[in-house]
C-alpha cells in the first residue's frame, strides 16, 4: 500500500507550484499532480509576461513556469504530470485517484486547479493566442500600445472594464455583444458609454477570426437576427465572456458558491473540509492575476503546514488508512 503523504497538491500552475515550493521547504514532502495535457497552468499559453515582479524586461510564461517547477523540485517536491480524476476528501485521510486508477493518500490537500477562460470556439482562436487574441487586458493590453483598433467581446462588468482599460493603448475599442443591452452594472456601463473611444456593436457576434502572417488580421461580425456580416479591421481581439472554475470533481464535497468557485474562509485558504485548502483562480472571482495566484499558493502552503503541525501530522510514524470501497 502506498505511503500517506503529508500534502498532495492538485494543479501545476502558479498557485500549485508556489504551494509546492513552500511545503517542500517546510519538509512536508509534497506530491503535486499537474495534468497529462495542460502542464503548468494557463500561463504556459502566454507569450511575454511584463507585470510579474522581478522581471523588468518581462519573461515568457512557459519559462516562468519551468523555473517555478524546477525551484520546487530543488527543495524536494515530487511532481507527476497526470490527472486526478476522483477524490474523497471527507475523512482525516484524503483519497485521490489518478487516471491510471492508482489511489494516493494524503493528510492535507491543496487544490489549485484554476479556471478556464470561456472561448468563442472559432477556428484560429487558439492558434492566434498571444498573437492578437487574448482573454486578459491587464495581462496583454500594453502590447497594443500605439496600435489601431481593438474589439472586446462580452457584455458584463469584466468586458466593460477591459474595454475601458484598453482605451489607454488603442485608438478605438469596439464592444461586441449578442444582446441589445449590456449585463454590466449601471456604474460600469455609464463609464463605458461616456468614453469617446468605445463604440458598441449590439446584437452581433464574431463569425470569423482572420489570420494574416501569423497574426490577427481582423474579424467578421454577424448580426444575430439578420445574419448579415461585415468586416472589422482590428489588431486585437479580447474575449471577456467569463470563466469556468475547474471544480467539477469537488461538487458535493466542498462548499461552492453560485458560480462554482470553491468557498474559503477569507483571508485564509481553508475550505469547508478540515485539511483541504484552495488557492489561485479556483477561488478568485475578482483579480485572476499571476501575482495573486502566487500569493494564495503561499498562503495555502502555510495554512496546510499549520494544520499538520496542530494535528501532529508531520510525525514519521505510518498512519493506517484503508482505501475506501
Can you put this structure into words, describing what you see?
- By secondary structure, this protein is of the alpha/beta class.
- Helices cover 22% and strands 27% of the residues.
- The strands form five sheets. Strands 1, 2, 5, 6, 7, 8 and 19 form a seven-stranded mixed β-sheet that branches. A five-stranded parallel β-sheet has the order 10-17-11-12-13, covered by helices on one side.
- Strand 15 and strand 16 (229-232) form a beta hairpin.
- Helix 1 runs parallel beside helix 6 (290-311) and helix 4 (157-166) runs parallel beside helix 5 (186-193).
- The longest helix has 22 residues, at 290-311.
- It starts with a strand and ends in a 14-residue tail after the last helix.
- 42% of the residues are buried.
- Residues 6-297 form the FAD/NAD(P)-binding domain.
- Belongs to the class-II pyridine nucleotide-disulfide oxidoreductase family.
- GO terms for molecular function: thioredoxin-disulfide reductase (NADPH) activity.
- It holds the Pfam family Pyr_redox_2.
- Keywords: FAD, Flavoprotein, Oxidoreductase, Redox-active center.
List keywords for this structure.
325 residues, alpha/beta, 7-stranded mixed sheet, 5-stranded parallel sheet, 6 helices, elongated, EC 1.8.1.9, redox-active center
Concise description?
The protein is an alpha/beta fold and 325 residues long. The chain contains six helices and 19 strands. Helix 4 packs parallel to helix 5 (186-193).
Fraction of residues in H or I helices: 10-25%
- Main beta-sheet annotation: 7 strands, mixed
Computed over alpha carbons, the radius of gyration is 22 Å
Anisotropy-based shape: elongated
The average pLDDT score comes to: 89
Query: What fraction of residues sit in β-strands?
Result: 25-35%
- Distance N terminus to C terminus? 15 Å
Amino acid at each position: 500500500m502506498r505511503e500517506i503523504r503529508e500534502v498532495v497538491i492538485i494543479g501545476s500552475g502558479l498557485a500549485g507550484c508556489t504551494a509546492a515550493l513552500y511545503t517542500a521547504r517546510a519538509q512536508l514532502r509534497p506530491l503535486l499532480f499537474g495534468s497529462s495535457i495542460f502542464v503548468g497552468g494557463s500561463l504556459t499559453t502566454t507569450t511575454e509576461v511584463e507585470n510579474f515582479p522581478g522581471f523588468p524586461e518581462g519573461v515568457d510564461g512557459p519559462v516562468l513556469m519551468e523555473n517555478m517547477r524546477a525551484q520546487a523540485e530543488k527543495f524536494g517536491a515530487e511532481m507527476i504530470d497526470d490527472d486526478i480524476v476522483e477524490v474523497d476528501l471527507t475523512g482525516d485521510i484524503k483519497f485521490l485517484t489518478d487516471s491510471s486508477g492508482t489511489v494516493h493518500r494524503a493528510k492535507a490537500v491543496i487544490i489549485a486547479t484554476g479556471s478556464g477562460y470561456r472561448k468563442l470556439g472559432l477556428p484560429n482562436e487558439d492558434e492566434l493566442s498571444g498573437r492578437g487574441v487574448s482573454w486578459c487586458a491587464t495581462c496583454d493590453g500594453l502590447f497594443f500600445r500605439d496600435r489601431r483598433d481593438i474589439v472586446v467581446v462580452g457584455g458584463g462588468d469584466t468586458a466593460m472594464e477591459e474595454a475601458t482599460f484598453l482605451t489607454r493603448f488603442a485608438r478605438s475599442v469596439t464592444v461586441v455583444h449578442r444582446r441589445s443591452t449590456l449585463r454590466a452594472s449601471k456604474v460600469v456601463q455609464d463609464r463605458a458609454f461616456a468614453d469617446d473611444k468605445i463604440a458598441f456593436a449590439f446584437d452581433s457576434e464574431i463569425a470569423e477570426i482572420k489570420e494574416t502572417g501569423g497574426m490577427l488580421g481582423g474579424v467578421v461580425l454577424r448580426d444575430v437576427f439578420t445574419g448579415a456580416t461585415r468586416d472589422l479591421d482590428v489588431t486585437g481581439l479580447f474575449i471577456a465572456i467569463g470563466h469556468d472554475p475547474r471544480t467539477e470533481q469537488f461538487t458535493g464535497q466542498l462548499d461552492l458558491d453560485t458560480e462554482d468557485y470553491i468557498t474559503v474562509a477569507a483571508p485564509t485558504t481553508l475550505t469547508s473540509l478540515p485539511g483541504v485548502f484552495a488557492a489561485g483562480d479556483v477561488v478568485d472571482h475578482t483579480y485572476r492575476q499571476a501575482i495573486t495566484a502566487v500569493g494564495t499558493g503561499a498562503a495555502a502552503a502555510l495554512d496546510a503546514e499549520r494544520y499538520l503541525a496542530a494535528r501532529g501530522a508531520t510525525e514519521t510514524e505510518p498512519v493506517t488508512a484503508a482505501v475506501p470501497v
